[in-house]
Amino acid sequence: MGEKDYMNEAQLAFFKARLQQLEKDLLKNADETTEHLRETVLVPDPADRATIEEEHALELRTRDRERKLLKKVQQSIALIDAGEYGWCEETGEPIGVARLLARPTANLSLEAQQRRELKQKLYGD
């Protein structure tokens, strides 16, 4: 694929639809969690209560990760609308369709991401 064909209208439309579906799924999961947590079950056994509380804690951790992903999804949709999606924030080079298929919220090329991870590993956050 030539550079002029990269992130053409069809590709942008594909990724926008994919990101919008992901956003819809994440919001649906959040609503289901809210409803699930509202259902209070009174259980007299302390072991059963502890199990229920642990399940709720696990569900909340999962939703917290999904909340962070939702923010990235919305940022990616905004990048598509601005015409900047698919380009590395650090280098300005194409991220690549294969990487975007695997991780549609990617904002760094594979090389830039590897450099960033190595820097974090060496120097910490």
From TrEMBL:
Its main location: cytoplasm. GO terms for cellular component: cytoplasm. Gene3D superfamilies: DksA, coiled-coil domain. Residues 11-80 form the DnaK suppressor protein DksA N-terminal domain. Transcription factor that acts by binding directly to the RNA polymerase (RNAP). Required for negative regulation of rRNA expression and positive regulation of several amino acid biosynthesis promoters. Interacts directly with the RNA polymerase. The keyword GTP-binding does not apply. This is RNA polymerase-binding transcription factor DksA. One of its GO terms (biological process) is regulation of gene expression. It is found in: Cytoplasm. GO terms for molecular function: zinc ion binding. Keywords: Cytoplasm, Metal-binding, Zinc, Zinc-finger. The keyword Cytoplasm applies. Pfam families: DksA_N, zf-dskA_traR. Belongs to the DksA family. Residues 83-117 form the Zinc finger DksA/TraR C4-type domain. InterPro entries: DksA_N, DksA_RNA_pol-bd, DnaK_N, Znf_DskA_TraR, Znf_DskA_TraR_CS. A zinc finger (dksA C4-type) spans 88-112. PANTHER family: RNA POLYMERASE-BINDING TRANSCRIPTION FACTOR DKSA, RNA POLYMERASE-BINDING TRANSCRIPTION FACTOR DKSA-RELATED.
